[in-house]
Amino acid sequence: MAFCQESQRYVKKYEDGLFDYVTPSTILDNPKEITYLDATARTIYARAMRNAQAAYEQLLELGIPAEDARFVLPNAYCAKVDMSINYHSLLDLCKERLCSKAQWEIQELVGKLRSAVNEISPKLAGYMQPKCYWLGKCPEAKSCGKY
């Protein structure tokens, strides 16, 4: 498996003045509010993204090299990634990352990879299963309950 990622050295400004970022559904769907702050999870998160963007731009203004200023950017920052992978490695990736215990974002990515393979070869896509499918039981400390 090989990856080539878009450089984060220079963050592009977008129409709304912010870099692209991912917002987890747990933040988007959280209805609670901190009343004394008049803030929801969504507003707190958006504020943090704006603050990260502002800090990055201010560091650049101070002459900090872009490759060092980018350290203030959050993990949620979006970057384009190209991936090359052979089928054997893809099967191994699916065994680990289609597991319901894997982090949601990687589950989503690997699910999309499986869907792309399914368009070309449903038979090959059928082998792209989590490890519990092949083992007949969940090997995780807290079982997913599927097997």
Outline of the structure:
This protein is mostly helical. The chain has helices at 25-28, 41-61, 66-69, 87-97, 104-120, 122-126, 131-135, and strands at residues 2-5, 33-34, 39-40, 81-84.
Mean pLDDT: 87
Beta-strand portion reads 5-15%
What is the overall number of helices? 7
Tell me about the largest β-sheet. 2 strands, antiparallel
SSE topology sketch:
Layout: E1 2-5, H1 25-28, E2 33-34, E3 39-40, H2 41-61, H3 66-69, E4 81-84, H4 87-97, H5 104-120, H6 122-126, H7 131-135
Antiparallel strand pairs: 1-4, 2-3
What does this 3D model show about the protein?
The chain is mainly α. It contains 7 helices and 4 strands; from the N terminus they run E-H-E-E-H-H-E-H-H-H-H. It has helices spanning 25-28, 41-61, 66-69, 87-97, 104-120, 122-126, 131-135; strands at 2-5, 33-34, 39-40, 81-84. A two-stranded antiparallel sheet has the order 1-4. Strands 2-3 form a two-stranded antiparallel sheet. Strand 2 (33-34) and strand 3 (39-40) form a beta hairpin. The model has no long low-confidence stretch (mean pLDDT 87).
